[in-house]
Amino acid sequence: MAIETVSIVGVGLIGGSFGLALRAAGFTGRIIGVSSPRTIEAALERGAIDEGRPLAEAIPWSDLVYLAQPISRILEVLPEVSRLARAGALVTDAGSTKREIVERARGCFADDPFFVGGHPMAGKEQRGVERAEPDLFASATYVLSPPGSDLPDAPVVDEFVAWIGKIGAHVVLLPAEAHDKVVSWTSHLPQLLSTALAASVGKRIARKDLLRVAGPGLRDMTRLAESPYEMWKDILGTNTSEIEQALDRYIEELQALRNDLASDQVEQSFRDAGQLRRRLSTKR
Prior knowledge:
Elements: E1 5-9, H1 13-24, E2 30-34, H2 37-46, E3 51-52, H3 55-58, E4 64-67, H4 71-84, E5 90-93, H5 99-108, E6 114-120, E7 141-145, H6 155-166, E8 170-173, H7 176-204, H8 208-211, H9 216-221, H10 229-238, H11 240-259, H12 266-281
Parallel strand pairs: 1-2, 1-4, 2-3, 4-5, 5-6, 7-8
Antiparallel strand pairs: 6-7
Helix pairs in contact: 4-5, 7-11
């Protein structure tokens, strides 16, 4: 089954960028947007979609359904999408946590239509289709978390994976539980650290003239602090235990640094930190 019609449910930053990326990669089929009237208008102006439709009209025509809403809305809409989706279609999502979404999908989807959880490791501090970019996924990791141990054996799934490659991303297959544990460290912890750092500095150095006495390090470290709480509320609520464990370990590391400030033992922490930074900077 060839993917000829795509429905993007939630045409914001990620959904809009997915539509733009498909077009830039040569997709010639129809892209339908399901969002608020204002968002649909903006998405049409950007060229991210070809038309806007209500959910009940869009899903039955779609070969690929791309759920790019907040996590709570994805969880709410999955049962309805499973009833509306046509035979042979693929439903996927772009939620930042996977365990609850994949568990819900297991209860809604049988063998056909198919469901595969997804999480493109790409984004910005801002949101909205106005910020969407066709190259947002370029060189990004794109995690796929199927309900079973492997991806469904279906042409539509194979074609979707191929399109992920065409938009420049690299697929990593990861069970939902493993995904949520990893991103608690690689994504959720950095956000909370940036938020805490900005809040701490802001409470103690409120005068704008004194904030000028700051190097690029503070700007770099607080970049994520621009992210609005609305983007993170569902993430924190659906991955709480893993995030708590990551925070506990980080607090232990900070306490060790505090205890070692006047000793040479802190040098090892600098070495370990430098090694990780160099690994992150290495091109794929």
